[in-house]
């Protein structure tokens, strides 16, 4: 397939993803739903098989060889993830089911211990429901109040409005790093600096950032960071919560069970050290190990190359759609990740999605679990094309052709 | 374009979705209900005016896809003059035809058969049935709400 970036090894990369060879309705799959979940390279798929075939048992408890092998592989994956986000220590790298669980963990554990009536939690209009509802739940329980940072028509996070919301009552700022519905990259360095200046902590929802850009927890100086493995070309059912060690140490456990204890008696239980204090129960062992392979995979290509490739695709797609009639692009922030939300005239996104699917093109249609964003633009839903490291300009062309067919049908 | 897709977006369906019949509100409604599909954010309100067990008027307000709007439009056309019992029987038959194991015989006289193309699109069946579920709630009288989930 033709591509705008000659040095990028697109053919080799595409051949690493078996599913890209699949056909849908007799057409080559054009997978543009990476924002919902990314496809898996052979290395990740093989790592899961290899784990179950050669080194699987429960972790951390067994004295037998297989348990030790599984434990070693899992902890090696934790070290890979730690390096990937540049956390100071493995103790700050907690495995959870996904970003949703990571945010619930912080809202529940940190929130119950630290929030009281009248305290304020700052969110933004851009948030995914998973970074809204956990805070609403804890606000209900504690009497804390939620404040919301607005966006402008382009979808930009309004820093000056944000600053006005900050006060000594602000205890937590929980915002997305990249908007899943619009692609807006939030100016998180400023967000963090201003929050810290007001004595508030910051949690970033990094689901849509982790697949697209290099992350450095120490440089960001963020307090908590959540992301999912499945959007990062890893397995579903596994995600990561980063937290500063001192904060995590002071927080009560989120769930009780095995693995997270030091000693249990009916009189008193003492908890395990980090990160295990927050990893109750048998973890998704093979998922963690394969997430390590996913991290290796993207690191080997490198975010300089991935970012340049995806920006080329986003720019090309934006330009091509802008040239078409009756297309409304929703979200035109200056700095965007490779996400393009749009509507075609009055045609409902679900009809668009069904028609595009017949051309083998997978896009997301709906509210993207970000109803406040939809309300902001007064739309019920959008069509969202989200690009990954294996997409091509030819696939953008296929999308454009598909949109033309939608327009013909609904003309 | 594939034959199945044409089956789904038949001209009669596109026509109803472009120019929905009975769009609006029945001012002296005896029952109304809201239907939501939380998965896609589609919303519909169905209004009915029932006198002595007969549906005198039926209208709807919808924010939804072509399938759900066309289904609501066709539904309200069919309802007027029907008894409540007849309307419920229509709903049962329509629902069975859409979700049953066997595709129904094509019946030229049955306008609703135009919607049977939805059978090939499992993710869209709820779009076609939402107006009917909402109607069912509206016929219970009062001010109800139904959801596809």
What tags apply to this protein structure?
heterodimer, A: 411 residues, alpha/beta, Aspartate Aminotransferase, domain 1, Aspartate Aminotransferase, domain 2, 2 domains, seven-stranded mixed beta sheet, four-stranded antiparallel beta sheet, 17% strand, B: 149 residues, alpha+beta, Sufe protein. Chain: A, four-stranded mixed beta sheet, 5 helices, globular
Report on the architecture of this protein.
The complex is a heterodimer of chains A (411) and B (149). Chain A is α/β, with parallel strands linked by helices. Chain A has two domains: 130 residues, Aspartate Aminotransferase, domain 1, CATH 3.90.1150.10; 254 residues, Aspartate Aminotransferase, domain 2, CATH 3.40.640. Helices cover 39% and strands 17% of the residues of chain A. Chain A has 14 helices and 17 strands. In chain A, strands 4-10-9-8-7-5-6 form a seven-stranded mixed β-sheet, sandwiched between helices. In chain A, strands 13-14-17-16 form a four-stranded antiparallel β-sheet, with helices on one face. Chain B is an alpha+beta fold. Chain B has a single domain, classed as Sufe protein. Chain: A (Alpha-Beta Complex), CATH 3.90.1010. In chain B, strands 3-2-1-4 form a four-stranded mixed β-sheet, with helices on one face. In chain B, strand 2 and strand 3 form a beta hairpin. In chain B, helix 2 packs across helix 3, helix 3 runs parallel beside helix 5 and helix 4 packs antiparallel against helix 5. Chain B is globular, with a radius of gyration of 14 Å. Chain B starts with a helix and ends with a strand. The mean pLDDT of chain B is 89.
């Amino acid at each position: 397939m033709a591509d705008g970036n000659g040095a990028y090894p697109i053919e080799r990369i595409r051949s690493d993803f078996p599913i890209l060879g699949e056909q849908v309705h007799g057409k080559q799959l054009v997978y543009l739903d990476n924002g919902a979940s990314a496809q898996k390279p052979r290395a990740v798929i093989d790592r899961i098989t290899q784990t179950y075939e050669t080194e699987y048992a429960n972790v951390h408890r067994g004295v037998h060889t297989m348990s030790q092998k599984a434990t070693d592989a899992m902890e090696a994956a934790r070290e890979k993830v730690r390096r990937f986000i540049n956390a100071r220590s493995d103790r700050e790298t907690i495995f959870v089911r996904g970003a949703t669980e990571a945010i619930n963990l912080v809202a529940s554990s940190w929130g119950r211990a630290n929030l009281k009536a009248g305290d304020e939690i700052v969110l933004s209009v851009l948030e995914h429901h998973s970074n809204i509802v956990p805070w609403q739940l804890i606000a209900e329980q504690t009497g804390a109040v939620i404040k919301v940072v607005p966006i402008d028509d382009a979808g930009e996070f309004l820093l000056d409005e944000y600053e006005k919301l900050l006060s000594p009552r602000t205890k937590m700022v929980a915002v997305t790093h990249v908007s899943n519905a619009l692609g807006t990259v939030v100016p998180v360095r400023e967000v963090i600096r201003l929050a810290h200046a007001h004595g508030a902590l910051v949690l970033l929802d990094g689901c849509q950032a982790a697949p697209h850009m290099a992350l450095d927890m120490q440089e960001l100086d963020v307090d908590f960071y959540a992301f999912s493995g499945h959007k990062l070309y890893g397995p579903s059912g596994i995600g990561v919560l980063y937290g500063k060690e001192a904060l995590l140490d002071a927080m009560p456990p989120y769930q009780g069970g095995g693995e997270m204890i030091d000693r249990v008696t009916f009189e008193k239980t003492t908890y395990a050290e980090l990160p295990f204090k927050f990893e109750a129960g048998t973890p998704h062992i093979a998922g963690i190990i394969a997430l390590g392979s996913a991290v290796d995979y993207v690191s080997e290509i490198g975010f300089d190359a991935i970012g340049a490739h995806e920006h080329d695709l986003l720019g090309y797609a934006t330009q091509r759609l802008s040239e078409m009639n009756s297309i409304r692009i929703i979200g035109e922030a200056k700095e965007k990740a490779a996400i393009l939300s749009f509507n075609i005239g009055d045609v409902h996104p679900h009809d668009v999605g069904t028609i595009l699917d017949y051309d083998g093109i997978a896009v997301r249609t709906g509210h993207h679990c970000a109803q406040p964003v939809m309300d902001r633009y007064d739309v019920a839903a959008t069509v969202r094309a989200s690009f990954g490291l294996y997409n091509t300009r030819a696939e953008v062309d296929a999308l454009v052709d598909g949109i033309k067919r939608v327009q013909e049908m609904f003309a | 374009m594939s034959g199945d897709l044409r089956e789904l977006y038949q001209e009669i369906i596109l026509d109803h979705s472009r120019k929905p019949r009975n769009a609006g509100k029945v001012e002296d409604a005896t029952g109304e209900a809201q239907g939501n599909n939380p998965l896609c954010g589609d919303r519909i309100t169905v209004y009915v005016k029932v006198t002595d067990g007969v549906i005198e008027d039926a209208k709807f307000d919808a924010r939804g896809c072509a399938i759900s709007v066309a289904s609501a439009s066709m539904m309200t056309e069919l309802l007027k003059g029907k008894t409540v019992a007849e309307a419920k029987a229509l709903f049962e038959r329509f629902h069975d035809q859409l979700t049953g194991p066997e595709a129904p015989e094509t019946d030229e006289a049955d306008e609703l058969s135009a919607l049977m193309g939805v059978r090939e699109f499992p993710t869209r069946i709820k779009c076609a049935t939402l107006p009917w579920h909402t109607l069912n709630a509206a016929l219970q009288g009062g001010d109800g709400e139904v959801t596809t989930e």
